[in-house]
Amino acid sequence: VTTALVLDIEGTTSPTSTVHTALFGYVREHLPQWLARNRSRAVGQLLDAVRDGCGRPDAGEGELVAILRGWLDENVKSEPLKVLQGLVCAEGFAAGELHGEFFPDVAPALSRWRSAGHRHYVYSSGSERNQRDWFTYARDGRLDQVVDGYFDLTSAGNKRDPSSYRRIAETIGARPADILFLTDLPAELEAATASGWRVLGVARAGEPQRPVPPWTWIGGFDEVDPLLEAVVVPERGSGAR
Ligand SMILES: [Mg+2]
């Protein structure tokens, strides 16, 4: 069976601290100047969405910057913030000031799984643009060639909502039982499982998440291979495979 592996970024492919310090830090610093240089209608609509999101319809740009920085501090998964984050960071990636940071077992695993015929997708709250740049500008060499697609809050929805996982399965044309999702957050494991996906929890050394029942947990991608076929969720209504 060919498996579609769907990967979370923060805490799964990449250290949480690198996402927070590198990406969030870059946005925090460069957002005001970036907004001053980018006054397109599309950016205006994003700022309106932020005004809606915080219930401050008359907020000026300075207030919006303060609100967005607050959301970064609290790791709020706001769609307009994540789109802006992707746009601002794109300049940092292109300029060589930002790099995707990955745990050392990720690149070898992706190349191994690709050789075995598996497909790889990324599902993160960061915008598709931001995810693509993270993999393209990976510090130790491009990883975008081994990724088949990216899903974000816009294309899939909230990661704690089971319907997001149904949407992804339809888009990639895979049966839920042929999809294996790797993430560090129990709420996301639960939502994916509710949509019939196979899941593995990722609890890496140095990351905040520890294994909790009832999921199967791994400490790194090296442990996934023997489990690629083994973590089976029975298909609903059609008996065992
Ligand atoms: Mg995560």
TL;DR of this structure?
The protein is an alpha/beta fold. It is built from eight helices and six strands.
Word description of this protein:
The termini are close together. The chain contains eight helices and six strands, in the order βαααααβαβαβαββ. It is α/β, with parallel strands linked by helices. Helices cover 43% and strands 10% of the residues. It is globular and about 55 Å long. Strand 4, helix 8 (186-194) and strand 5 (198-202) form a beta-alpha-beta unit. It has a six-stranded parallel sheet, with helices on both faces. Residues 8, 10-12, 183-185 line the site of magnesium ion.
Q: State the end-to-end CA separation.
A: 11 Å
Structural class: alpha/beta
Helix content: 40-55%
Gross morphology: globular
List strands and helices in order, with pairings.
Elements: E1 4-7, H1 16-37, H2 41-54, H3 61-73, H4 79-94, H5 106-115, E2 119-123, H6 128-136, E3 149-151, H7 162-172, E4 179-183, H8 186-194, E5 198-202, E6 217-218
Parallel strand pairs: 1-2, 1-4, 2-3, 4-5, 5-6
Helix pairs in contact: 1-3, 1-4, 2-3, 2-4, 4-6, 7-8
The structure holds magnesium ion.
Residues 8, 10-12, 183-185 line the site of magnesium ion.
Provide keyphrases for this structure.
disordered C terminus; 241 residues; alpha/beta; 43% helix; 8 helices; globular; 6-stranded parallel β-sheet; binds magnesium ion
